[in-house]
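JOB MANIFEST
job_type = single_chain_structure
chain_count = 1
residues = 338
[input]
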Amino acid sequence: MNYSEIKQKAARIKQEFSVLDYFHGLVKSGCLKYEGVQGKEHFFGFFEQRTGSIAVDDRSNVWYDHAAGLGGDIFRAVQVFENKTFLESVERLSGAFPVKKIIQKRTSEERQKIVVEKVSEISHDALVNYIRGRGLELEDIKPFAKEVHWRNKGKRYFAIGFPNESGGWVLRSSIFKGNILGGGVSIQILGTPASIKFFEGWFDFLSYLKLSGDTDFKAIILNSTANLSLRLILDILKERQKVELYLDNDSTGEAYTNEFIKVAQFYQYCLEAGLTTDWDLKSLRGCRDKMRKLMTSLEMKFSEVKNILMVNTQVSDKRCQYSGSEDLNEFLVGMISR
């Protein structure tokens, strides 16, 4: 490519590629952790940090690392986090390099620094007290979790460990929140599933069990809303089961709940209209308005949006059951303290 072509391609990528999506991709790979939203900014951080230092402004489509004192656009992010030149970052975001292939190399390097030294039944007083502070007892958590001790860069740590689908651990304690040996969702199948239920975290799932006594469902524990990808939503919709969403009562939970329901409506509309539901997800990677691009690729008229949003689906928002609380766990703690 000559300079003019590179400049045109870079301008297009900068406009279409979401910086927020890029950082969520780093979370899914296990390179970063997602800390949530404060005001108009999403915060990310490294696992050894107590709080996230990387702020992403989705509206401006830029990022800034407060600890390192650097930031910029999507190209600068690729240059910093994947050690690429500007030209390589343009090629990378044009699809010349698979995302997983690049990020897995970093994850592999991270794994070599972390050594799990012991996995046992939970017994440490600090962890038992932490569990009780979350409104649960040891017997509530025992079937699902272990006490995990690990070493990282010469320092030793321990926490409650929940398994995830990538073979890693989701770790929680009063002073630590993160993943080791890979991130991703956790799945639990209880009894004979009559529905699929989504939870943001393990303590929301455990709180639901304690509050409801339900024993027949499939639980998808996201461990981070960044893991609620379009691919995961479609995989669940293809199971043709009733889906219940128990996400947080905050702006992030609101956004992801609405997004799931809209995708479900779009999916159901396509089924009823005889349109394909085998969507080209690769072409949507980094796109900020995936639904609009899908409608264009399916040669649909944008006037159909009104009809799509009226479609009934088997997906329901259950956050009204704990309105007034940030999440299910806070709701449980509040009930116990009354």
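[summary]
The radius of gyration is 21 Å.
DSSP finds 13 helices and 15 strands in the chain.
exit_status = 0
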